[in-house]
Amino acid sequence: MDSRRVKNSSSYLSPVAGVWSAIEAVEVRMMPTPLGMQPTEYIRQSWNNKPYGSVDSLSVSSVHDGKTLALKVSWQGVSPEGSDFPDALAVAMPIGESPPLALMGMPDKPIHILRWTASNPILSSILSKGIGLSDHGPSVVAGAEAAKQNGKWHLVMTRQLGVGKNIAPLVEGKSTEVGFAVWYGANEERAGIKAFSVDWLNLTLDA
Amino acid sequence: MSDKQVAMVMDLNKCIGCQTCTVACKRLWTRREGMRHQWWNTVNSQPGTGTPHGWENMGGGFKDGIAQVGHRPTVDEYGKAWEFNYQEVFYGGKDHVPLTPVDGDADKGPNWDEDIGAGEYPNGYYFYLPRICNHCTKPACLAACPRKAIDKRENDGIVLIDEDRCRGYRFCQEACPYKKIYYNETLGISQKCIFCFPRIDEGVTTACSRQCPGRVRFVGYLDDPEGPIYKLVHEHKIALPLHPEYGTQPNVFYVPPMSPPTLDENGIATDKPRIPIEYLVSLFGSEVEGVLDRLHKERERVARGEKSEMLDLLISRKWIEMFGPFGKHPRDVGGNPVQMVTPEPITDKGGVA
Questions:
Q1: What's the whole-model pTM score?
Q2: Of B69, B147, B170, the CB nearest to A45
Q3: Which residues in chain B are closer than 8 Å to A84, comparing Cβ atoms?
Q4: High-pLDDT (> 90) share of chain B, %
Q5: SS3 labels along chain B
């Protein structure tokens, strides 16, 4: 996927901004995380024969202006108010060499995740070295704006370009990889009970 | 595995359901943000639905070593204490305003069926069952957490949720068969009884045990032969775990309640206890019958003038000995010892200072 270079990313902050219609979107296939990879027997037992991660695909597009990258993600699945767990979306990128996406990082191949939830306007920055091992991540300049329309979430996540300790590098003219995860709160999805994008998607920032 | 295991024994023959333990814990630990609905210590009337309502049918725990699916209690099932219109009654300026719940907020409270019990007059019966987190040897909560946010301390077996690692997934809430874990919506984390570990670390017993006016609770190490816990659980064998079939090996034990005999239609005592044995077996397992037998026999021996170490332990004439190695006064430990000062005399200026 290309992150198209634009003059000013600030025009793209809103997920319903008209300018997004000119940016090509990519369909990212999603599937539920394998039950066998859930870290504890309790989770494997309680979610056995319970469907989860039913989001088929995400629609993803991206722009950047040399300073800030904006990533627009749309997907089906808005939970009603009052759900115990919030709808959420996570965007993961490798910090160095990428591990298999399904492992959520490895001790020597950590990944950097920015996570949005419907219940918190502030993104979480997460450093992950494996399943069940995510921890507080590096400070990054990032933000999000979300809108819901007809049961669909439309989210724009922004992040400052650059490199840094434990920060996934985003450099114009360079490529990186991106992975996604989605939680549908009304189905009590949280932790590893989610849909994920199976494998890394290549993301190239236009020079 | 822990080297030593701190444990508690509760004598159900002495609990009067005064809830001092509940309030002691609430005042010490759960007055903070997001903790209003949390009752780390509960005392319910049994038979009854308990707190949360119907917790004994909410699954969790282990069966044949396999993790069992559990229900996560809803806010309503935990029960909400009522908010009353105190402001209006006391300061509203109107006469005869009845004390009523605010905004129709009058659903089942946490201890809804208090003192209802079971049975028909003259053979009605109930007893009080105080409960805290059992700091199990095989905690279902610890096993369920995908982030390993729950740990069992090596040195004393106290089970603690690491509030920094917890993400509020609440699998622990589902897995705990005793339903003793609460969720803090403000902080987004799960919380539960901590066995007053900051006090235990300083040699002070838990708030619930120390505040109990009924001398119900013994605290000590399970494997310390000199301590009250070992003697009650292993030596005299009169303290039993609650619902051992949940498979988590709880470290809170109960001396089962004796009860007066049932009366027949002529008002004559029968040889059946008021609290049905079957009910006690359903709570404490089949050994409860033998335990009650031993308790009765020991009382008869003392009535005849003989000595009984078992009853001496239970009577607890020396209150502080109930707490084994945790007999220090809270005032005497910690960085800021409380200083007793002579209060200023109250001058007669009227009103509250």
A1: 0.92
A2: B69
A3: 72, 170
A4: 87
A5: CCCCCEEEEEECCCCCCCCHHHHHHHHHCCCCCCCCCCCCCEEEEECCCCCCCCHHHCECCEECCEECCECCCCHHHHCCCCCECHHHHHHCCCCCCCCCEHHHCCCCCCCCCCCCCECCCCCCECEEEEECCCCCCCCHHHHHCCCCCEEECCCCCCEEECCCCCCCCCHHHHHCCCCCEEEECCCCEEEECCCCHHHHCCCECCHHHHHCCCCCEEEEECCCCCCHHHHHHHHCCCCEECCHHHCCCCCEEEECCCCCEEECCCCCEEEEECCCHHHHHHHHCCCHHHHHHHHHHHHHHHHCCCCCHHHHHHHCCCHHHHHCCCECCHHHCCCCCCCCCCCCCCCCCCCCC
